[in-house]
Amino acid sequence: MSIQEQQTKLNIGLFGFGVVGEGLYKVLEHTPTLNAQIKKVCIRHPHKKRNAPAELFTTDADLLLNDDSINVIIELIDDSAAAYNIVTTALRKKKAVVSANKKMIAEHIEELIALQLLFDVPFLYEAACCASIPIIRNLEEYYDNDLLQGLSGIVNGSTNYILTKVSKERISFNDALKQAQEAGFAESDPSLDVNGIDAVNKLSILLAHAYGIITPPDALIHTGIQNLNNDDAIFAKEKGYEIKLVAQARKLADGNIAAFVAPQFIESDNQLASVKNEYNGVVIESSLADKQFFYGKGAGGFPTASAVLSDLSALRYNYKYEYKKLRYQVPSALTDDFYVKVCISFKALLQVPHERFDKILEWSSNEQRCHVTGILHFSELVKSNWWKQPNVSIVFYPDAIIDNYVPEKTGVLQEEFVEQLC
Amino acid sequence: MSIQEQQTKLNIGLFGFGVVGEGLYKVLEHTPTLNAQIKKVCIRHPHKKRNAPAELFTTDADLLLNDDSINVIIELIDDSAAAYNIVTTALRKKKAVVSANKKMIAEHIEELIALQLLFDVPFLYEAACCASIPIIRNLEEYYDNDLLQGLSGIVNGSTNYILTKVSKERISFNDALKQAQEAGFAESDPSLDVNGIDAVNKLSILLAHAYGIITPPDALIHTGIQNLNNDDAIFAKEKGYEIKLVAQARKLADGNIAAFVAPQFIESDNQLASVKNEYNGVVIESSLADKQFFYGKGAGGFPTASAVLSDLSALRYNYKYEYKKLRYQVPSALTDDFYVKVCISFKALLQVPHERFDKILEWSSNEQRCHVTGILHFSELVKSNWWKQPNVSIVFYPDAIIDNYVPEKTGVLQEEFVEQLC
After folding, report:
1. Is A388 exposed, middle or buried (0-12, 13-18, 19+ CB in 10 A)?
2. Residue B108 in contact with residue B217, Cβ under 8 Å?
3. Among A153, A364, B235, B261, fewest CB within 10 Å belongs to which?
């Protein structure tokens, strides 16, 4: 059997020629066995100097999208609205598509799945989630039976870099953010990372492949590290924890799924504690295999190019995501009906309706901050947003999701503590 | 599209009803969405009590192999000669086969690949390598382009359990082996584990999927922890290393592959250092994605059943290994032409032909042991076996493979040291 018989020759139209795009171009040039070549690159700024022949470039998207000899579109641009147009147009023209745009994919995942089926064409996006970690492919292929109990991951490198710096070097969150920006791990507008939006976009994509759940990311409870402060870091340290920003999903006893993105205390023997700086890591729990851990670089030009390349490689063999949990099983449903163990830190007691805790387990205060640890019904976080207000921070405990909790409704702080705080 | 249209209904003939087999039976009973059922189980001891209906069992292999309604054979027996007969017969009868028998697969991999192609039928064996870690599937699917620079893994849980105990609790190798046996992590005859044979069987399987290299495991240089002693453990500790039994392969500058199994000093920031007790872990290096790490339980009933289950799940969609590197590319070749940095420890200098080192970097001795660190041409380990003799141990350094080494031929111990030792 010759290579040609087995593989589809990939004729690529590339959108974007930043670090990832240029890296990809170079690898394809030097790796003829990949049987793929970039025919045309669509860019926004025609006058910028490029390390490739001038005739490769155009500013006219239609030149790529209407070229019948181009059978693969790779979309690597920042602008998610433009990316949406490129991807949906390409799918409608029955071109295979590879994208790394997590925001665009998360926000349109239902339509994008439907278009793939309608036009019977692959749309792959391993690079959109943890870059070099093949998490989507593993959820699709290896965890496609229904024994997946949960997943929890550090899926945003910028915030993990900041949290590592704060924990290790005891610098302030602000200084750590500055260092992250200088090191190139955070955008000049870092709010998408810092507020947990990037992480929840990824969680939304993971949920589709892990449990067949289609949900807009903004419908998922999420918060980032924006309100964490150095007192929280000290509080964690004293208890022997690290704080990490964790995206997680867990199957409850009734088969429904709990899912959210929030800071969490991580015990030192949890594999996520070993994920430092800009790295990503995902722990998968299945009912038979116990815990498994995937670790690698979650962002950056080369790791992203590596994931795009693996998608290209898969396209040569006509690989498609099957979305098996969604299409061939009764998909699981998201639920808010469970309890969680959290630590709330705040400046003024008035900010926190402490009576809504089912049970308060621990409280402390010093001149700067108060910390209350207790058990809350998760729907409280859905219904209200006091826990997201400035100067209030929330950190989930290890094993925060309490599935079989029997409410005690004793959630009121002792009077003397309230007096102390006021 | 209905489930029936998409999926093949799996009618299973199972060989072996030990922990894995029984676990699998229970999961399939309770998980109708898997669309798979065990029709018949072939066992050796008909009078042993089984937790399943009596009519399920037979001692007649042909009853399974000749049953046309059985389209999948799962082979989970210890006896590798019998397993070979079962698997090859089943493939010839065009039944899909799932096996966990690493020894049998490693020793017959070329024939088993040929039979799959000849009879156009899938043969999956994820459970044979690191059980619950989907390493074969990832090498097949995700690292199928030729950018894989190397892999190094802890692939044998028993020896890792022993090494962890020796390092953490400072007990002797013998006592640690006894504990491993008591904990069920080592066989009553542990020599396959301890001598590195189990690990090299797995390396042989990994090489087929990683680089398209087909090699009998006994042609690969391998040694285990059988000659390590507590002085080696102390030596490692003093240098800030852990000793791990590592299976590794690395692409050299000329495109050829270096591969072997041996104890290695591991630095604390290497992810393999975090693999404790009976766990397994594999680090994969690709030229773009840097290092990635896969971690999970590498043995035991449930993790093995989990991998078998994932293979079953893949069979429903007619998944096959493609052996892409072997079939669609020019596969890489194994080489002995490189240098390695090793530490040899020994009792008497006569045992060690120190003049065959290209360069000696460090030496020390105490009343019990001598340690020599130096650079050796790898072919020396192929040609001779002084380094495997009783009372001689070899431990590779981190980054042991030196690709671009310029020989200095200064490999003689200083005279005063020789005098000291003799």
Report:
1. middle
2. no
3. A364
Chain centroid to CA A174: 23
Q: Taking the alpha carbons of A322, A325, A328, A334 in that order, is the dihedral positive or negative? A: negative
- Alpha-carbon distance of A113 to A118, in angstroms, equals 9
Task: Give the Å distances, CA to CA, from A195 to A164, A228, A241.
Answer: 17, 11, 21
According to DSSP, the residues that pair with A11 across neighbouring strands are: A37
| CA of A297 vs chain B CAs: smallest distance (Å) | 7
What pTM did the predictor assign?
Answer: 0.86
CB contact under 8 A, A329 and B305: no
Are B141 and A145 within 8 A, CB to CB? no
Rg of the Cα atoms in chain B: 23
Given B302, B319, B328, which is nearest A6 (Cβ)? B328
CA distances from B216 to A266, B97, B260, B379 (A): 44, 21, 12, 18
Q: Token digits for B312?
A: 């079953």
Q: Which residues of A touch B291 (CB under 8 A)?
A: 296
Q: What is the model's pLDDT at position B4? A: 36
Is B202 one of the annotated active-site residues of the chain?
A: yes
Token pair, residue B217, equals: 């495991």
Residue B108 CB contacts under 8 Å (≥ 6 apart), including other chains: B84, B88
Inform me whether the pLDDT recorded for B113 exceeds 60: yes
- Tell me if chain A has a CB within 8 Å of the CB of B296: yes
Question: What gap in Å lies between CA B272 and CA B157, rounded to an integer?
Answer: 13
Domains of chain B and any CATH numbers: 339-421 (3.30.70)
- Is B131 at the interface with chain A, CB within 8 A? yes
What percentage of residues in chain B have a pLDDT greater than 70? 94
CB pairs under 8 A between A and B: 156
- Check CB contact of B31 with chain A, cutoff 8 Å: yes
Is the CB of residue B297 less than 8 Å away from at least one CB of chain A? yes
Is this prediction's ipTM beyond 0.90?
no
φ, ψ dihedrals at B54, nearest 5°: -60, -35
Chain B residue nearest residue A132, CA to CA: B289
Cα A159 to the center of its chain, rounded Å? 12
pLDDT digits (tens, 9 = 90+) for A110-120: 999 999 999 99
